């Protein structure tokens, strides 16, 4: 069994049980973003959380070991065509250099960690149409000189 197989089993179980990512995350005591990322194969889960996920979704027992494997964090290098994913790609294309400049101005030469990191997705009511609020919360890692 491979990560892609477990991903398909999870998506099928999620649909069959009528669950949302927030509900699945609450069943294992983790954030919706982290849980979704694990379920889609882009992160690994500690044994305890993998076992809880397997139990919550009635997955085969061998799925736990697969969920614990360190993933190969690669993705399609082509421009995404799914509209929701493309918008995030477009935002980074338009504002990526701006974000880099502002981070460097506030923190110095370095990067924002995507390892010591949290992300939150919120819905904000607005009379002109609800808004999507994405918070990227990563530790600053300065480059060092040697």
TrEMBL record:
Record-given protein name: Cyanate hydratase
Residues annotated as signal peptide: none
Residue ranges annotated for the Cyanate lyase C-terminal domain, each copy included: 74-146
SUPFAM superfamilies reported for this sequence: Cyanase C-terminal domain, lambda repressor-like DNA-binding domains
EC number: 4.2.1.104
GO molecular function, one term: DNA binding
Keywords, in A-Z order: Lyase
NCBIfam families: cynS (TIGR00673), PRK02866.1 (NF002773)
Catalytic activity, as annotated: cyanate + hydrogencarbonate + 3 H(+) = NH4(+) + 2 CO2
Protein role: Catalyzes the reaction of cyanate with bicarbonate to produce ammonia and carbon dioxide.
Active site: 87, 90, 113
Keyword Lyase attached: yes
HAMAP family cross-referenced by the UniProt entry: Cyanate_hydrat
InterPro entries: Cyanase, Cyanate_lyase_C, Cyanate_lyase_C_sf, CYNS_N, Lambda_DNA-bd_dom_sf
Keyword rRNA processing in annotation: no
Pfam families to which the protein is assigned, alphabetical: Cyanate_lyase, CYNS_N
Family recorded in the similarity comment: Belongs to the cyanase family.
């Amino acid at each position: 069994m491979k990560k892609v197989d477990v991903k398909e089993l999870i998506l099928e179980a999620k649909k069959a049980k009528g669950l949302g990512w927030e509900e699945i995350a609450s069943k294992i005591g983790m954030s919706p973003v982290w849980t979704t990322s694990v379920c889609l194969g882009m992160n690994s889960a500690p044994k305890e959380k993998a076992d809880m996920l397997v139990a919550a979704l009635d997955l085969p027992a061998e799925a736990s070991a697969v969920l614990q494997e360190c993933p190969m964090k690669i993705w399609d290098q082509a421009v995404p065509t799914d509209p929701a994913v493309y918008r995030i790609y477009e935002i980074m294309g338009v504002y990526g250099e701006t974000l880099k400049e502002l981070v460097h101005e506030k923190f110095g030469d370095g990067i924002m960690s995507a390892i010591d990191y949290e992300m939150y997705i919120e819905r904000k009511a607005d009379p002109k149409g609800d808004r999507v609020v994405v918070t990227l919360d990563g530790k600053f890692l300065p480059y060092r000189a040697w």
